TrEMBL record:
Positions of transmembrane segments: 38-68, 107-131, 137-155, 162-180, 186-205, 226-247, 286-304, 325-347
GO MF term set: oligopeptide transmembrane transporter activity
Name listed for the protein in its UniProt record: Metal-nicotianamine transporter YSL7
UniProt family annotation: Belongs to the YSL (TC 2.A.67.2) family.
UniProt keywords, alphabetically: Membrane, Transmembrane, Transmembrane helix, Transport
Location within or outside the cell: Membrane
Gene Ontology terms: cellular component: membrane
Primary subcellular site in the record, as a coarse category: membrane
Keyword NAD part of the UniProt annotation: no
Topology relative to the membrane: Multi-pass membrane protein
């Protein structure tokens, strides 16, 4: 993540900014894919997809090899963990017990695939009724694309605890918007609705994987977690429309900024969909070439790392993981520096007293997460009480500093 932050903020984005007016029109909105955001989203998605597709392929190959070995040896054995199989004997007693419990109570693959096919079929029938501009084959395509994006997003969330669903939403809006024609009525609605289907699947997969991780740590049954997730999703399908029905009549202009309950992202995403129906012509110059290069580079670097790992070359430890680099491309450098500082504290603590660190690190981390979540609550309470800070500090870019200085110089 730190390498991605340094590369993007020091070299890549300043170079893209220097091409403003040449590669893309000046003064583009922040979220518009026609400006700098087009390069950010396309390269971030390219790296995330490349990393996700590569590791999905590795998992499929390992699963096929394990089944082949099982059939060849003609005896059953428990498939503990495909990624850390050789390291199982070195696990602690608690980790081995967690792993055995988690694998024993897993969900049958027939149930997973069958349920996905059934609900995809229901969606392909019902959603075109709700949105006539959508066709059943487009919903089918959305459900075919969703597992690939879901794997990439879940893998990214597991590595970095960062959800890239918003970036994948922009990607799907563009894909389905470019699929339709601009002269067809309802093209914008079709792009937004189909992207909403994919986003729902991607978000659910990421949340479910995070819940499975918690269940693994707390020795909770994966089936219980899955049933609870189904119940929560069903309640959301009911409560979400009900809440909207309550808010919408009491808030005229809900999709504008002139309301008590604004939806600030509605207008940018609609503008994005309106641009997307123009196809690849709306993307800024060279953005597709850079995205393809990032995708192929991700596959190449991952291949080199896996080869080095298989050959037991120690250099593979120093080959960076590309998915966290994509996070830094998308989210900026501040998040990566926070992670780096936390890793440094963990390393120092573990070096000085390993047993003490293993015992208290999770507790300290939970306290810091809870404290960080409490800060917005305190800010909201202070804002409700009309309490304002006596001093406000803000860091400007070099361009903004010159504008502020010019404004202050013209004040009489």
């Amino acid at each position: 993540m730190l390498a991605g932050a340094i590369i993007s903020t020091t070299f890549l984005w300043p170079y893209i900014d220097s091409k403003e007016g040449l590669w893309y029109a000046a003064g583009q909105p922040t979220l518009a894919l026609t400006g700098r955001s087009g390069y950010v989203i396309s390269m971030c998605i390219a790296v995330a997809l490349g990393d996700g597709i590569f590791h999905m392929g590795v998992v499929i190959i390992q699963v096929c090899y394990e089944f082949y070995t099982r059939r060849k040896q003609k005896h059953l054995f428990r498939l503990i963990n495909l990624w850390t199989g050789p390291e199982i004997p070195t696990m602690s007693y608690d980790d081995r017990r967690r792993t055995n419990l988690f694998v024993q109570d897993r969900i049958p693959i027939q149930v997973a695939l069958g349920g996905y096919i059934v609900f995809a079929t229901i969606s392909a029938i019902v959603i075109p009724v709700l949105f006539p501009s959508l066709h059943s084959f487009q919903i089918g395509a959305a459900y075919i694309l969703a597992p690939l994006l879901s794997f990439s997003n879940a893998y990214c969330t597991g590595l970095t605890d960062w959800n890239l669903a918003s970036a994948f939403t922009k990607f799907t809006v563009f894909i389905f918007g470019a699929w339709t024609t601009s002269d067809k009525p309802g093209s914008v609605i079709a792009a937004l609705a189909s992207a909403g289907v994919v986003t729902a699947v991607v978000n659910t997969a990421s949340d479910l994987m995070a819940d499975f991780r918690t269940g693994y740590m707390t020795m909770t049954s994966p089936r219980s977690i899955f049933v609870a997730q189904i119940a929560g999703t069903a309640m959301g399908c009911i409560m979400g429309p009900i809440c909207y029905m309550f808010f919408a009549p009491a808030s005229p202009g809900l999709l504008t900024g002139h309301t008590e309950y604004p939806a600030p992202y509605s207008s940018p995403y609609r503008i994005m969909a309106e641009f997307s129906i123009k196809g690849f012509t709306m993307l800024p110059k060279h953005s597709v070439s850079l995205a393809v290069s990032a995708f192929l580079g991700t596959i190449l670097i991952n291949s080199v790392r896996e080869i080095a790992r298989g050959m037991n070359w120690r250099i593979y430890r120093f080959i960076p993981s590309l998915m966290p680099m994509a996070i830094s491309f998308y989210a900026g450098p501040s998040y990566s520096f926070d992670m780096m500082l936390g890793c440094l504290v963990r390393w120092l603590w573990t070096t000085s007293n390993k047993s003490h660190a293993e015992l208290f690190l999770p507790v300290v981390a939970c306290g810091m997460i809870a404290g960080d979540a409490f800060s917005p609550l305190a800010d909201n309470v202070l804002s409700r009480l009309n309490v304002q800070a006596e001093l406000c500090t803000r860091i400007f870019t070099k361009k903004e500093v010159s504008l502020v200085a010019g404004y202050l110089a013209n004040i009489p």
